[in-house]
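Hello K.,

You asked for the raw outputs rather than the summary table, so here they are, unedited. I folded two proteins back to back in the same session to keep the settings identical. This is the first:
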Amino acid sequence: MQTTNRQVNSNYDNSTKTSRIATVHRTTGETDVQVTINLDGRGTCTAATGIPFLDHMLHQIASHGLIDIDVQAKGDWEIDDHHTNEDVGITLGQAFNQALGDRKGIVRFGNFRAPLDEALVEVTLDFSGRPHLSYGLQIPTQRVGTYDTQLVREFFVAIVNHSQMTLHIRQLDGINSHHIIEATFKAFARATQMAVEIDPRRAGVIPSSKGVL
């Protein structure tokens, strides 16, 4: 399969206060996905993936992470949602990686527990440059509407590998599939917001004792 990526980024510059914006356009024989993010946004979202539940979850990342997100995707939906779901995760992960650049000045770590009615999910993450996913969701049903709940893990695998983050997801409570998944995306959004914030005490400095991530 041939894959092409076109990436444009404008990383945070403490001297000029420019926004951290990235656009990634990824095309394969199965999908055509374009993602634009602004890490210093206000939480606006435009999502047209052809997968309504995934669009709903992308809105959660934008709104609760205060990240502007625009996702436009075309995929082989006649087969199933798997390729589009995964490739949106890949492209969003690449956009995060491009927008963060060398990660100078960021807090780097984030942690949040999000409740949604009976569901409670904790997300802890580190923009470490070392991809790792520890996934602890137990979703009781195979589908939410038409969305295959196995695709939640596939989405986070994709975003982790291509944003180069360490991500731990823990389900502390919950019996409703929709609530569990939505609480996960909300917790991910808030943890991400914490991690990508600029720490004014080390603006312009890579947040690692090694001096590199």
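The second followed immediately with the same parameters:
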Amino acid sequence: MIYYIADCHFYHGALNTKMDKRGFGSVLEMNEYMIEKWNNKVTKSDTVVILGDLSLGSVEETNELIHRLKGKLCLIVGNHDKFVGKPDFDLGRFEWIDNYREITDSQKKVICSHYPIPFYEGQYRKRHNGDAKNYMLYGHVHETRDEILMQQIVKLIRETPYYPIGSEHESTIPCNMINCFCKRSDYTPLSLSEWIKLNDNLRC
């Protein structure tokens, strides 16, 4: 199974009182809660794609962290992942580390980026029944005003009419973007289908 999660911000204690207002009593309490939620879901054979901003800890703290987390780890580098590139960082714990990656999951293309991309590869592609072929998974914006603006952009795109190539019938532009912010899933990595369901529920 492939799971996804964004913006864990391990060791970033300020998020308990600012921006996210996570409400943990300390950074240690936050870290331990997130590790427990992660390891209760993920097995050693699962893959977890981290969509950026995994840890604000030191290289030593982050190395200890990644060896406590279950699964085969893959990292899309976020703007706070300063440990990447440091000489003592344990690169061997990761299957891959990239700034952007397109993968296949459950016969769908998944565009993985820390930053939201409203016009992404394969956006217009649909199956014959109208289901989406491609999804854009992102992080970075948490639940800030930027995410509110992003959802306004998504709504505008989805309401914009166009004529698909080879069709005489008007349609609207597909836009299947999901913010995989960890707080939305109670800090638990989720599969693509789980994120789709959660995202649909949040839009209702």
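The longest helix spans residues 27-41.

Happy to rerun anything if the numbers look odd on your end.

Regards,
P.
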